[in-house]
Amino acid sequence: MNRAVFLDRDGVINALVYRPSQGTYDSPYSLSEFRLLRGVADAINQIHRLGMLAVVISNQPGVAKGRCDRELLQTLSDELRKRLAVEGAWLDGIYYCLHHPASIVEELKVECQCRKPKPGLLFRAAEELDIALAASYMIGDTDRDVGAAFAAGCTPILVKRGAGYAGKSFCLTARDLVHAATEISTRESALDDGESAA
Ligand SMILES: [Mg+2]
Ligand SMILES: [Zn+2]
Fold first, then answer.
1. Terminal CA-to-CA distance of the chain, rounded, Å?
2. Distance CA 6, CA 122 (A)
3. Distance, CA 85 to ligand 1 centroid (Å)?
4. What ranges do the domains of the chain cover?
5. Cα(113) to centroid of ligand 2, in Å?
6. Residue 164 — pLDDT band, cuts 50, 70, 90?
7. What is the CATH number of domain 4-197?
8. Which ligand has the nearest atom to the CA of 140?
9. What residues have a C-beta under 5 A from ligand 1, the ion?
10. How many angstroms separate the CA atoms of 156 and 146, rounded?
């Protein structure tokens, strides 16, 4: 079976976008708003060097809220893969939950099992990519990510980036994805040392 590091998208891989009209941070809703955070490709390469898959697990209710269309989500996924490829990095899967309980699009107005903190997307990825959840990590920047990780039996790492940070859960924390990947490396080599000592 595979092991994975599951990655939230907004606030972990790409920057959140400040919306002055709402006074909040939100997902990018255009190509020009889509900005990768520093060191993301390196961090993903580091995850692969550990022998783990890198899989995006993301709530994307923008279509349900009427803020973007499905084509834009696909465009951003393509752009993400393209920018990572420039630095030799790749994603082993991208899983989005498009649902929202207050969706204006009827077929997305669902109390689904995949909107984080529910673990449905993690279960689906585990099934499709043959991932051992208990031996995997989930890196995210909100309590929803941490909740989904716990519900699926993964180890959560909460990225505390300041802007948009909404996490209060008790778990491992890191400054950003680069730091989180380094923390995983450190933990993994400590586990290896423990095994060879035993
Ligand atoms: Mg996020
Ligand atoms: Zn869903």
1. 23
2. 8
3. 22
4. 4-197
5. 6
6. very low
7. 3.40.50.1000
8. 1
9. 8, 10-11, 141
10. 5
